[in-house]
Amino acid sequence: MKLSLTLCQRRLALVWIIGAGVLFLFVLIQSSLGHYDNSADAWNWLLPAVLPTASLIVTALFKTLQPEEKMADRFLFRLCFSLSAVYLLTLLAVLLLQPLQQSSGPAEALKHSQICLGPFQGIVVSSVGAFFGQTEKAEPLAQGAAG
Amino acid sequence: MRSWGEIFATAVMALGLMVMASCGPEHVPIEARSGSGHKKAGRPHPVKAAPPPAGLPSFPWPPPNASASEGIPNELLAGSSQLQSLGDVNTRLVSALEKNGYSERNYYAVPNGFALVTRLEQIEPDGRPKADPDRWSPNSPEFRSLGAYLRALFTANPGYYRVIVFIVTDVPFAESNQKVSEEEAIHWLQAGLNQLPQEISGRAYTKDVASTALIYEFQKEQGKDAQLDEPSRLGAHEHLTHSGIWSALGGEP
User: Does the CB of B144 have a partner CB in chain A at under 8 Å?
Assistant: First the structure.
């Protein structure tokens, strides 16, 4: 089953922009209220975790503004969408669970999370990349199913 | 011409005077050499310190540097009654402490008096004790409300801990430069005696006896060791007022 690539990319972009925006706002408030000894630790954790994928998606979004309509595989889109959503929710969970970790400080908790987030991010970036690579010309029969 | 006897007698007298003169400066009154052995700046008259009773451990002397300290006026301690002995002072302090939930306390010897140490308690930023069971827990409190969780999520939200030490003695003292750790403060409650020995409680109360509250306040941030607040964010009077001890002694806030 094929879906409109433009539609898929816009949905993915929406998830990433909202997710990254919430995380950005969260860390901004924490930094402003003195939650971290050194707020650079928090930004050093958040920006590499979000920016590469977000940049890739935004770039692809502007590239597909051309009139040529392309199609994407529905499974790949769903996989990419789910992985992205779970990844962003995991980042949010790391921030939300900070107060419960008494053995380590907030910045240390972020550092510890990178151990498991690194491979996860790799999978997400790969799936996003693969999704944008799996594009082909629109098929007249499949267009009705898109959306 | 003098006889040999006169010369000998004069020589003996001169020798005796020399011996007395050379021994003179070392004849210091015994009171000046006794006492606690710590420096007391501007102390006009040395006070003879009695040895502590056997079995009663001594509080570090001079006391380690406190976050804040305040002398409790003798009139306030006496209240409507007459203080006759150090035991009376202890009774007044214990009564004020028990009214405010400080049921665990320990006694130490200090020169010519005693130190009464309360258990390490967790306090609010304004000096009020936290509600049980968080009050007596050395660990950070559990989140009992959404507000507490959000505070911990977005702000530094340090935990505050306090130990109050009452020093009752007629020996003037200055705090030492020693910085006490949270572990040492916790240990104070384990090493002292649970009752004030009769040898100390029976000692007569005089106008020279001063009662001083030393506040040791610790601040603990998430994932870090507690650090002594030096000086305290709050004054000693605020600590005593917000703990309820001051009003229990009959003082006005």
Answer: no
What is the DSSP code string of A70-135?
EEEEHHHHHHHHHHHHHHHHHHHHHHHTGGG--SS-HHHHHHHHHHHHHHHHHHHHHHHHHHHHSE
For chain A, how big is the Rg over CA atoms in Å? 18
CA distance B240 to chain A (A): 29
Interface test with A, best of B153, B221, B225 (most A CBs within 10 A): B153
Q: Which residue has the higher pLDDT, B222 or B114?
A: B114
CA neighbor of B115 nearest in space, from B150, B89, B84: B89
Sign of CA dihedral B221, B227, B232, B238: positive
Subunit contact A99:B222, Cβ cutoff 8 A: yes
- pLDDT tens per residue, range A50-62: 998 888 888 877 7
pLDDT value of residue B27: 34
- Phi/psi for B51 (5° steps) reads -65, 150
User: What pLDDT is recorded for position B30?
Assistant: 30
Chain A partners of B154 at a C-beta cutoff of 8 Å?
A: 29-30, 33, 35
B55: left (phi over 0), alpha (psi -120 to 50) or beta: left
Q: Does residue A61 contact residue A16 with C-beta atoms inside 8 Å?
A: no
Locate A27 and state its tokens: 């860390």
**Poorest-confidence range of A5-9, A119-123, B107-111, B142-146?**
B142-146
CB–CB contact A104 B143 (8 Å): no
